Fold:
Amino acid sequence: MNFLYPQLLFGLLALSIPIIVHLFNFRRTKKVYFSNTRFLKKVKEASSSKLRIKHYLILLSRLLFIFFLVLAFAQPYFPSTKDGFVSNQVAIYLDNSYSMSNEADDNLSAFDLSIGFINKLIGLYPSSTKYKLITNDLEAASNTYKSGSEISELLTEQQMTGVTRTTEEINDRVSLDTETIKPDVFWLSDFQSSTLGTDQAILDSTTEVNLVPLQFTSVNNVFIDSIYLDNPFLIGDQQLKLNVIISNKGEVDRNDMNIKVFIDDLQAATATVGIKANDFETITFDLSFNSNKWSKGRISIEDFPVTFDNDFYFVFNNSRKINVLEVHENNHERYVQSVFGNDKLFNFTSQSVDNLDYNLVRQSDLVVVNGLISINGPLAETLNRRVLEGGQIFIVPTEDVDINSYKLVSGLQFIELAEDRNEMSLTTPDFDNPFFANIFEERNQRVVMPKANPLLNLGSDRNALLNFANGQTYLTKVNQSIYILASPLTNEFNTLQNHALFLPIVYRMAVSSSKDIGRLYYSVDDDYVNIQTDSLLSDNVFKLSSEQGEFIPSQRLNNKSVLLEIPKNELEAGYYDVKISDEIVTTLAFNNSPKESDLRQTAVDDLNQYFQGKYEVISAADEASFSKAVESKYIGQPLWKYAIMLALLFLLIEVLLIRFFP
Structure:
């Protein structure tokens, strides 16, 4: 124990005063005469004994009163682990993600509790200290230091966001000025295991970092993880199967969870499901969509106290058709045209290579190069550019193929002519391959497969979509953009075009070519949205509009598509119209990241291991314990308050002894 003003301990000499008063009674005695004192002798002896005990107790209480009063003025304290505050500048990271809305203490959310911690922190540091407040928004204003009063006012304006940040991103923002300034860092977060990240970058060892984990009273939460359609094609007003994955990341089973599905604000379906702890369930709804417009969907559950993820939004957009271009020789087979002849679903164009409009190649989602003898230089260059832009190519060879010209297409340099062209059966596809998801009603390994004569040698690839019986590749995908077939689509070489497998395979190629267009939903954590329209002008400005307001995101035009940068800090879960002027181009649905809904936290021991023991963890359940922990580390534990209380206690004891002791 140390003293802030040790010189005041000389005041303990005052302890001699009550002792002197006790030993030397300066009061003058007065004799009282009695006619006979023989009968008072025993009474006098007994009274003197009690009086002596009373005087000693009063003396002791006076001495202790003076002793603790002197100690209070000398201000004793237990020394801190640090020699005072390390810096007069403090960097504070406040996790304002939606998961912080969970309860942490007596119906108080972790977010509100952390704001109370920051206000306590400002009161502990000297008034000249400067602070900067960093949140998940990572706004430019968070790079400047402000006074304590400005930070307190800024805290009242903070709102929760669906944007999550990993430790790497937070470290990068905190370390922007640590080379010139060495601030004390306070990191207030719930430290979710799902969003912590894998990077273990540590700030400079001279930077004092304090981790303040906000512990939840419960991590139970049920939420909608994701949704998907069995068949993404909608023709007419037919029904679609909507699959909803409900996840329970809590520690208790949930029974009788009520799930409702709304289409255009009208309840379309409902179901009740039970979900075991740390498990998930998939529920399928049969829904009807209007094929002539965008249908806004919402899936709703009731779960408390975490409510930010109780609604899941999606949009089914059937107004936009998939653009398919077939490039062929004049004497080509018409199998591809018969597949894409549905004008409700596809904008199909078929052109001869001799009269090809190269602009159509860049405007198409899927380009089918069907039976070309050779791929000339301009066409190969256009195809390569379309691949870089995200388009999909399906290449079908012909019997008189010029193999060297095909190699002009990026990624096809490995192909050769097959030496063995004998007919072979195809093996059963890998049912676990995502490409074949929902194509087969049942996984029958005995299904009758097509036969083909190999024209191209595409090597042996276990990850190929379809293989010959000898292990050679029949259909594969190169560079995630180019599908190539080993045999021509003619009756002399192939039976695939007459097989039931042909239509769903080619349809799936078309769907994958349009995967970024017409998605059911996006996450507010996504970086970009790809929008396609029938026509774009270079001076078009796209806007995102909702009930909350309208804003213009960063955008990049590319032919008939535009890449919109998602303004993470501005978006909330819900629907947004994409507009040019006042015309609605399409409607998008955004949801919070499912990672935010997984409330399981990283244990303190795991935090120490994750940060290699170089960051100190301050565990606090309330503002009082947080304040005490910070004082103990930087200021020390002051004891003068306890000394004052003890001094008053012994003063009270003295009064009681004088008043009530006989």
Remarks:
- The first strand starts at residue 2 and ends at 3.
- The chain has a mean pLDDT of 85.
